[in-house]
Design goal:
It is a single chain. With 188 residues, the chain is mainly alpha-helical. It has helices at 22-40, 47-50, 61-81, 94-101, 112-132, 156-182; strands at 139-141, 153-155. Helices cover 53% and strands 3% of the residues. A two-stranded antiparallel sheet has the order 1-2. The longest helix is centred in the last third of the chain and has 27 residues, at 156-182. Mean pLDDT is 89; it is low at 1-16.
């Protein structure tokens, strides 16, 4: 089982990965790289620092990781169960949207260690799915949402690429937030 270490935000132990090659190995490598850069932004931070907004955005480092964790879970469940796993976004109430917004911030009782551990577990399950899914080309119809074209299907492959894109995008956001916090950079 993987664990996290606050000083780097990186898993300190890893389960042996199956010997994968080709597309699946490439997907796992890119997921790992993007996750590393996101986690790395939280190195040596306190819980309070992980919850600070340091830019005009409402985003904080802990909240970004909570959001990406939810993204991984939702899209993994979509691959396995279809659109019902994500719900109908067109039917969401104000309370539903407020609850969804909580994934972008550190709430009372949230700790960086717990947020990182939750992310590590979500990542482990996604990686397991990449390694074992019989067909990366299998499709599911997208859930109802104002941002999706109606009656569109995505393959498991495309959903996994979406997880990668979300993670990379938010790693960039996190890098700016961290640099604004204390001048630390992920690169350079």
């Amino acid at each position: 089982m993987t664990t996290t270490e606050r000083s780097t935000g990186e898993p300190t132990t890893r389960e042996p990965a199956a010997a994968l090659t080709g597309e699946r190995a490439d997907l796992l490598e890119m997921l790992a790289k993007n996750r590393h850069f996101l986690r790395f932004t939280t190195r040596e931070l306190t819980d309070e620092q992980a919850g600070l907004r340091t830019t005009a955005s409402e985003l904080c480092l802990g909240g970004l990781i909570k959001h990406v964790t939810a993204v991984e879970r939702n899209w993994r469940n979509f691959i396995l169960e279809g659109p019902s796993a994500m719900g109908d976004f067109t039917a969401m109430t104000e309370a539903d949207w407020a609850q969804r917004a909580d994934q972008f911030r550190m709430l009372p009782g949230d700790t960086l260690d717990a947020v990182l551990a939750d992310y590590t577990e979500a990542a482990r399950l996604t990686d397991e799915l990449v390694a074992t899914l019989p067909d990366l080309g299998a499709t599911q119809p997208l859930p109802k949402a104002p941002w999706f074209q109606a009656e569109t299907e995505w393959s498991a492959r495309r959903a996994l690429m979406h997880i990668m894109a979300e993670t990379a995008q938010h790693a960039g956001h996190a890098d700016i937030i961290r640099e604004s916090l204390d001048g630390a950079k992920s690169m350079g």
